[in-house]
Amino acid sequence: MNYSLSFQNVSKSFETKRILDHISFDIEKGKITAFLGQNGAGKTTTLKIAMGLLTPDEGKVLLHNESIEKMKKEVTFIPDHPYLYDELTGREYIKFIMELTDLNLSKEEVEKQVVYYHLEKEIDKKIKNLSLGNKKKLALMGSLLNKPSVLLLDEFISGIDPINMKKIKSILKDYVSAGNSILLSTHQLEVAQTFCDSLVFINEGKILKIESDISSVFTKNESLEDYFISMLNMSGGTQHD
Ligand SMILES: Nc1ncnc2c1ncn2[C@@H]1O[C@H](COP(=O)(O)OP(=O)(O)OP(=O)(O)O)[C@@H](O)[C@H]1O
Fold first, then answer.
1. Looking at the chain, which terminus has fewer C-beta neighbours within 10 angstroms, N or C?
2. What's the fold here for domain 3-82+150-235?
3. Distance between CA atoms of 227 and 74, rounded to whole angstroms?
């Protein structure tokens, strides 16, 4: 079994509106999977179901072949605007996460993490005074402290300067190289094309297409933008020129 997270026929409605319609796809171990779709396609709802924050009406999500309810500690989710307790310093926030999750890292181990995330100059500042890129690195550090095997990122890769972006990308690559998996929802097609290993397209709550090897997709120098639009056209979905 080379996959970690498996969505099997998952459906979800809010009131009478069907938001997810029998979606099925797998997230492979050691890979970064981009989750692409227009506004309102159902990406955040899917991620929240995978995190156990929403319950599907039908279908199930398995992690390493076990029900997601049993495996909640293995999955972590960073929403588009992570709430990090503005009045705490970064160090206090990390201490708070460790207390919350019964994790007992030594001072040296925390310091090693701080250096790895390039947060040496920022960790003792109040979170409200950090740049967005540094807040995101802190959120990532807090989320990965407990070594979950699946990381769900909702529009995380946006509003980050190039230096922090380079660092974040290298942290995410290290994370999957250790056999973990990432499902990353994004509207930044360039990031999906150059950084991710596979693609899952969702449109109006249905899975449109799964590309498990991104390198085989763009043989004719086609941009992901063109590919995305042609996919929508083929599905009869809304098109934007
Ligand atoms: N709690 C809720 N109650 C009712 N409708 C909801 C709720 N949460 C989401 N929706 C609706 O479900 C649909 C899918 O929303 P979702 O946030 O999953 O889409 P998305 O693909 O993440 O969109 P975006 O790219 O804009 O973030 C939208 O029409 C949204 O308005």
1. C
2. Rossmann fold (3.40.50)
3. 33
